[in-house]
Design a protein that fits this description.
Blueprint (H helix, E strand, L loop, with lengths): L1 E6 L4 H9 L6 E4 L9 E7 L14 E4 L5 H4 L10 E2 L4 H20 L1 H9 L13 E5 L3 H12 L3 E6 L8 E5 L4 H5 L4 E4 L13 H5 L5 E5 L8 H9 L3 E6 L19 E3 L9 H17 L14
Parallel strand pairs: 1-2, 1-3, 3-4, 4-5, 6-7, 6-9, 7-8, 9-10, 10-11, 11-12
Helix pairs in contact: 1-9, 3-5
The structure holds NADPH dihydro-nicotinamide-adenine-dinucleotide phosphate (NDP) and oxalic acid.
The site of oxalic acid has 5 residues, from loops.
Length: 307
């Protein structure tokens, strides 16, 4: 039997090498070089071409290369009853927490702004922003680790999730009714939600107007969490003071997209927490063997919840 790597926008070669470095690894193939479709019992996917997962009659496992699974769950030809796993990992959570802290510090301490002044040979001193209220939307693996790191650094944290949380130093808000209350005092809104039918375009005018004027948005979840026109509007109206975006509805972001040149938008190309290939390789193999032994899987997704 064989593992098929179906990865878009990710070089499959390092993952193939890490997988094959383990003596318990079966045959590995890289799409589109599938060979006999009957051999494929596991697929590893990232932004895979929609519709292809149905081509493998002996498929037993769909493993996401990353934490987000929206691309898998929205596949119209997703084989029924094949378990789906995702990447959950301490390093992934720690990287994200560090990234969000860095974005907040950059904004409060005006680091990027001083680089711009340097380029113009301008000596001008400002003061640090006092802003320390952070609301994190999504208090799962990444959100809760981010909350803990920010809390240790003296930030006041509110977290919003589906279910109530009991995390020391974090005020928990939960359910649709408490969304606006969770962001009412936010200086920073951090989106770490999964993309689901319920969270699509959750970062919209209604939400921006429920926060205090001048809040700063950080989207490290998914591009489709954001209603792009509403962001442009909120920045123009100064309801938001700025936005840091790591994820976009279309990736790579088209060259003519207005975000590229917007003075209040700071962007990175979906790098806030990359998958560690060595670690994901081990998780994939562990689940491969769990399936064979009929054991419960690590980090199995619940499709009914959509994340
Ligand atoms: P988890 O599944 O661990 O956590 C998701 C959180 O969102 C949970 O707290 C969940 O609530 C909450 N949630 C989901 N739906 C709703 C809803 N309708 N209303 C309120 N809360 C909701 O996910 P991770 O923390 O592992 O990852 C989050 C996302 O981060 C990924 O799906 C991915 O899109 C993104 N990501 C981005 C990366 C990047 O490089 N930019 C890297 C990795 C991930 P509850 O706890 O009650 O279930
Ligand atoms: C992920 C990502 O979901 O990198 O893991 O976006």
């Amino acid at each position: 039997m064989a593992i098929l790597l179906l990865l878009d926008q990710v070089d499959p070669t390092p993952l193939e090498t890490y997988l094959k470095s383990h003596p318990d690894c079966p045959d590995v193939r890289i799409y589109p070089h599938v060979g006999c479709v009957d051999d494929i019992d596991t697929v590893v996917v990232w932004k895979h071409p929609q519709g292809v997962l149905n081509n493998f009659p002996n498929l037993k496992l769909i493993a996401s290369y990353g934490a987000g699974v929206e691309n898998i769950l929205s596949d119209h030809a997703l084989p029924k009853d094949v378990p789906i796993t995702r990447f959950v990992d301490e390093t992934l959570s720690d990287q994200m927490a560090e990234f969000v802290l860095a974005v907040i510090l950059n904004h409060r301490l005006h680091i990027t702004h001083y680089r711009e002044l340097q380029a113009a040979s301008v000596w001008r001193c400002g003061t640090f922003l006092p802003d320390r209220n952070v609301t994190i939307l999504g208090m799962g693996e990444l959100g809760s680790t981010t909350a803990n790191l920010l809390n240790l650094n003296g930030y006041n944290i509110r977290g919003w999730s589906r279910s109530e949380k009991n995390i020391p130093g974090v005020i928990s808000f939960f359910g649709d009714d408490q969304l606006h209350a969770s962001i009412a005092d936010a200086d920073f809104i951090v989106c770490l939600l999964p993309l689901t039918p319920k969270t699509k375009h959750i970062l919209n005018n209604e939400l921006f107007n429920a926060t205090k004027k001048g809040a700063f948005l950080i989207n490290v979840g998914r591009g489709d969490h954001l209603h792009e026109d509403d962001l442009m509007d909120a920045l123009y109206q100064e309801q938001l003071s700025g936005a840091f975006l790591d994820v976009f509805s279309t990736e790579p972001l088209p060259a003519d997209h207005p975000f590229w040149r917007h003075p209040k938008i700071h962007m990175t190309p979906h790098i806030s927490s990359p998958t560690d290939k060595q670690k994901v390789a081990r998780q994939i193999l562990d689940n491969y063997h769990r399936i064979k032994r009929g054991e419960p899987l690590l980090n199995q997704v619940n499709p009914k919840r959509s994340y």
